[in-house]
Specification:
By secondary structure, the chain is of the alpha+beta class. Strands 4-3-13 form a 3-stranded antiparallel beta sheet. Helices cover 34% and strands 14% of the residues. The termini are far apart. The chain is flat and about 110 Å long.
Length: 442
Amino acid sequence: MGFLSNIFRGRDAPANRTSGSAYSFFMGGSTSGKRVNERTAMQMTAVYSCVRILSEAVASLPLQFYRYNADSGKEKAVDHPLYFLLHDEPNPEMTSFVFRETLMTHLLLWGNAYSQIIRNARGEIIALYPLMPDRMEVNRDQDGQIYYEYYLSSDDAHTMKGTSVRLQEQDVLHIPGLGFDGLVGYSPIAMAKNAIGMAIACEEYGAKFFANGAAPSGVLEHPGTIKDPSRVRESWQATFGGSANANKVAVLEEGMKYTPISISPNEAQFLETRKFQIDEIARIFRVPPHMVGDLEKSSFSNIEQQSLEFVKYTLDPWVARWEQAMVRALLTPEEKKKYFFKFNVDGLLRGDYQSRMAGYVTARQKGWMSANDIRELENLDRIPAEAGGDLYLINGNMTKLEDAGIFAADGGSTSDDAVPEQKKGQPPDEGGQQNKKYGGMR
């Protein structure tokens, strides 16, 4: 009957366990024979470099907390407690940079980032503490509600060994990565363990090759019978093995002969394989190869475009995950209508000095940026409003198409006689030469 009950169970009824919370079994042995987990993977320079690039990029982005204005604009909500927590100090032990760097590292290695939300008696959030993803399970109770089971260790509290803590959904900031059920993300390391395992095997092969004196293995042949082969092998290894004994001249007695049996690294395309694995790991994390030190296909003409694509196609999806997860977990239903989080990636999208200045000229002359708007982007002090720092200006020669040629009708005269009768006594046209609201540029 139990088998039949599973068949006829409602498809939409939530199970008592999320499908992605047991992803840890994907870690472990790979087809190359090397064990791959988050710690062995981080020993690979390419993995370490990609994780560091992404985690430091997200941590260094300015994280702002805004509120909507009555005029549909926005302003920084510096008086809200969450502004200080996320912008400066999430908890007494961490800065905002370290906190975000730690959570982003968890996302890249385990596919999930968890942080415990600490509230005071009034329900206000007063601290955020990171939690280790490898000790967290996401389950459902009998009512279908999600809860988090966190297993403690002696590193957390020496008096609570082997115990677990159940946290409700509102007590955890959970940022999931790519997953199958939308609730729990899968580890990129676990999903690509075969590629990373091959890279580990190639690196270990190269290390052993140089540890053996950069000489291939071979066979010692003797015309007679050797009473103690192991002793001869150990003597040979002690005398000629290792990089310290490289280039030593071997003297063979009693007709012994050394015959190498291994192919050389060049014949095995060892260097090409290692290089390909670096590109493969960069592909896993969607990091441009030039950012991990591979400049073979980079040039002055395309490296800036690759950097812009890194922001657009790599950072933006991660930033969106962060912003939406924080809104969902840290704001009340009423606050969600008034506040929002925003990572500022404009600094990473800025071009060179000449390109920025050309863009500012266009924005200034078209009237959609003031001098203070530009100076704020360049991290310069504001010009006082009475000195014209907040004026939005447009070129004086801009006018409507139907009014073109009005001032040329009387030899360029700007007197009232050259203006049609219906124009006399009327205020200047919007965007016209005498637009007082924007004060025309000359």
